[in-house]
Design brief:
Blueprint: E1 3-7, E2 11-15, E3 23-28, E4 31-33, H1 35-38, H2 40-55, E5 59-66, E6 69-77, E7 95-97, E8 99-100, E9 105-113, E10 127-132, E11 146-151, H3 157-165, E12 169-171, H4 176-179, E13 185-189, E14 194-197
Parallel strand pairs: 1-3, 9-10, 10-11, 11-12
Antiparallel strand pairs: 1-2, 2-5, 3-4, 5-6, 7-14, 8-12, 9-13, 13-14
């Protein structure tokens, strides 16, 4: 079985985990739901595994749960890349860790945005550093070389869009808007979930 983080009604990431079965938990807007007790974790795990078997690779799926059970809404390949640091010089600089949510590695000028009203400051090739990676940011993705956000997860809609466009993204980076200096040169590793900047 594959490891997964499951969010009700949201995309689900599946990573090969070898013979180990690790189904985490389902997070709802009302709090955590223990599916293992409800027996639904096994059903969802089988659905995820079957989808992965059909694709022959890790997949990302969107699903819904109703009175009839789980419904697969859509599925697409989840491209998992090996971690590569293009320039080892970045390893010597300050960094923060988060959840890898995009693919690849990119660098550019950090633009720290605290509200949507500041998005006009983001120029082509910049790294957007923000508090929330919400759907409202989707229109800016074609301009940026990467995205760093304090909130959000790798199964969010914006993360899916970033992966489809090949944009490095790291989410769940605590205090990113406070610690990453506006205007600093930043490197975003969307595979390892690491952000580094020149101090």
């Amino acid at each position: 079985m594959s490891a997964c983080w499951v969010r009700v009604g949201m995309p689900v990431k599946i990573f090969p985990a070898g013979p180990v079965t690790r189904i985490a938990r389902i997070v709802t807007f009302d709090g955590d739901l223990d599916l293992a007790v409800a027996g639904q974790a096994v059903t969802l795990g089988r659905l995820l595994r079957k989808t992965e078997d059909i694709f022959g690779m890790p997949v990302e799926i969107e699903w819904a749960l109703d009175e009839q059970g789980f419904r697969l809404l859509q599925a697409r390949p989840l491209h998992v890349e090996p971690i590569v640091v293009p320039d080892a010089i970045w390893l010597q600089h300050p960094g923060l860790n988060g959840h890898p949510a995009g693919i690849g590695w990119g660098s550019g000028r950090a633009v720290v945005v605290n509200c949507e009203c500041e998005l006009s400051r983001v120029a082509p090739g910049d790294i957007l550093v923000t508090r929330v990676a919400g759907p409202a940011l989707s229109h800016i993705l074609p301009r940026v070389a990467g995205v760093v956000a304090e909130l959000g997860g790798s199964t969010s809609h914006l993360a899916s869009l970033a992966r489809e466009r090949g944009i490095p993204m790291v989410l769940g980076v605590l205090d990113a808007t406070r610690k990453i200096p506006d205007g600093a040169q930043v490197a975003v590793d969307g595979v390892a979930g690491v952000v580094r900047w020149l101090a």
